[in-house]
Amino acid sequence: MENNQNDFHVSFFKPVTNKARRNRNMIIWLVAIWATAVFGFQILLRVVGEPVPEPSYESFVSVWDQIEGGEPGRSDLKTFGHSVLGVLGKVYIQQDYKEALANSFTWSVFQMAEEEELAMLEKLLADFRDKTETSDGILDPEYIMARDALESKVAGMLDVADEDPRRLVIPFMLAKGDPGQLAASDLEMTETAMELYLIHNRSFLTDTRFLGFPFHYFYSAVFLLILFIGLCWAYCVITDRREAQDQALGVEY
């Protein structure tokens, strides 16, 4: 008796019919288009991009020798604290970097405070920490008052504008940080974090804006999604047309 156990075996890589072969080739072409659009663009970003520092990093570099050498002036500490705040205001920072930056920021603020400012600063920080622990929540009027007072004081010392969103993190970083002597490990991690978070690869692909978005963001977040849906649609349309053509020609498989 003839063995028919392999009659229904289907292999994508070794199609046995012309229809299956055409379907395989079409899928390979569509996947190749998708892979080129995704990975090719990322490679292009790497090739044409050049590292460009943010202004905060340039300010940081201008005073880093004085900070690291242990002989910073008030203006150096002010510039240092302001530039570190430029990183602390970002959405995501690795936890160990955030701790080091918080210590560096808090240290710089207390070091630059003059004698009459220091007592006020210590009182405001102690009051905010106390209200953080004892208040019923972030809507507690006393908590809000303590937070705003500390924020306003330090923002004034660093010349942080009222509309600058970075000022919102000031009281929380001060509460997290240590105003005492800055450890060598904190200095080292601060230098690494500043370079990591304030130097970015930029090119015409990142600087050009399209429909209100940076082009690389629009391409990755919007266009690639549309492309994927379009390739799926193309697969269905082409398959339907081939089926109709085969039926019209009376092709059987």
Can you tell me about this structure?
It is a single chain. With 253 residues, the protein is mainly α. The chain has two domains: 18-49 and 204-249, no CATH class; 52-200, no CATH class. Helices cover 70% and strands 5% of the residues. The chain is built from ten helices and four strands. The protein has a two-stranded antiparallel ribbon. A two-stranded antiparallel ribbon has the order 3-4. A hairpin with a 2-residue loop joins β3 and β4 (213-214). α1 runs antiparallel to α10 and α4 crosses α7 (170-176). It is elongated, with a radius of gyration of 30 Å. The chain starts with 17 loop residues before the first helix and ends with a helix.
**Count of helices?**
10
Largest sheet: 2 strands, antiparallel
The Cα radius of gyration reads 30 Å
Strand content: under 5%
**Derived structural class:** mainly alpha
**How many beta-strand runs?**
4
- The chain-level mean pLDDT equals 87
Strand line-up in the sheet with most strands: 1-2
- Global shape: elongated
- The ordered string of helix (H) and strand (E) elements is HEHHHHHHHEHEEH
Indicate the low-confidence ranges by residue numbers: none
Number of domains: 2
